[in-house]
Amino acid sequence: MTDFKMADRLASLPPYLFAEIDRVKNEVKARGVDIISLGIGDPDLPTPDFIIEALYKAAQKPENHQYPSYVGLRTFRAAVSSWYKRRFGVDLDPDNEVVSLIGSKEGIAHFPLAFINPGDLALVCTPNYPVYNVATGFAGGVTKFLPLTDERDFLPDLDAVSDAEWEKAKMIFVNYPNNPTSACAPLSFYEKLVAKARDTNTIVVSDAAYTEMYYDPADKPPSIFEIKGAKDVAIEFHSLSKTYNMTGWRIGMAVGNETLVKGLGKIKENCDSGIFQAVQEAGLAALEHGDAHAEKNRQIYKERRDLLMAGLKKIGISCREPKATFYCWCKIPQGYASSQAFVTKVLQETGVVVTPGNGFGLPEAGEGYFRIAMTVGKERIEEALSRLAKF
């Protein structure tokens, strides 16, 4: 049998976050225990009927059965531009400042290939969505992690980065509302970030996939492009996945600086053939007619959040009340050696799946925390809280 050696880049990958959880979950399930999964950020709510109907109609058009454009339908990109104007007051040129994505993860994973050369430095705020540092490494870049701490409201200390590091950094990844901490960033943070990036010619990669998952209109998360001068340095990634319960549809967008958008498009031109055009027409319908649905989603998640927060408080688990996302970032109780140890014990004893904080980016940054995803109904949340209380 031939012995093939995998590329070194695969050997450098961090351990798969859910591998150990999946192993223990299968053991617990084999005992006949009812599993309640609060681990993965995948909405349990269905895609709205009007989006499905738009897909059905579009799928019947023969012209949609051929290769699509890798940059996306002009009509979809125009809808993205109109949505950004309506939601954030931001003007975008659909021809030069918008590119469609097969989900925002795909775009983020491909983006460093367009601008990172071997040895280039990328700044990554952590705990974080692991794709940022993985994609940097695949492009041959080097990651410097910027810790996000409770004391700083999970915002990076931009002043702690030395002048030499800012000058060397090719890009910085930021993600607000944040996965996993649920933290939000004020406009003042973006103002400082944009000013620093313009001074040092650093690309800002803004992952904004959760901006529509907020609970109070007063806490509406902004886009980085609400800051004057942001288009000089920034690209923003967004997705229809969470807003319209379309995770499996794989459709998103990147917008912003023309050079950055076109660079990403050049990579995509050589790596994929775009999104099925019928899915883009359904996405167009979502952007044009989905505001009421997004508001309904927010109300559902607000009820879940309030129920969960009250239950956690009663049990004695410390957690900041999230203002956005469907995540709760909780501190593990005293007496456990690590986040992984706590999560494993909870799963073994209760059948409730939560995610260890040390699996998000730099392990020590998330150590001492675990993440709960509010992606089950209220009855299941109540059952999970009941089991945790007994535990």
Relevant terms:
391 residues; alpha/beta; three-stranded antiparallel beta sheet; 12 strands; 14% strand
Protein model, in words:
The protein has 391 residues and is of the alpha/beta class. It is 42% helix and 14% strand. It has helices spanning 8-11, 19-30, 49-59, 74-88, 104-115, 131-138, 163-168, 187-200, 258-271, 277-289, 291-315, 339-350, 363-366, 378-390, and strands at residues 36-37, 98-101, 121-126, 142-147, 169-175, 203-207, 234-239, 252-256, 327-331, 352-353, 355-356, 369-373. Strands 2-8-7-6-5-3-4 form a seven-stranded mixed beta sheet, sandwiched between helices. It is globular. The mean pLDDT is 96.
Q: What structural class is derived from the secondary structure elements?
A: alpha/beta
Query: What is the terminal-to-terminal distance?
Result: 49 Å
Number of strands: 12
Number of helices: 14
What's the overall geometry?
Answer: globular
Q: What order do the helices and strands come in, and which of them pair?
A:
Layout: H1 8-11, H2 19-30, E1 36-37, H3 49-59, H4 74-88, E2 98-101, H5 104-115, E3 121-126, H6 131-138, E4 142-147, H7 163-168, E5 169-175, H8 187-200, E6 203-207, E7 234-239, E8 252-256, H9 258-271, H10 277-289, H11 291-315, E9 327-331, H12 339-350, E10 352-353, E11 355-356, H13 363-366, E12 369-373, H14 378-390
Parallel strand pairs: 1-10, 3-4, 3-5, 5-6, 6-7
Antiparallel strand pairs: 2-8, 7-8, 9-12, 11-12
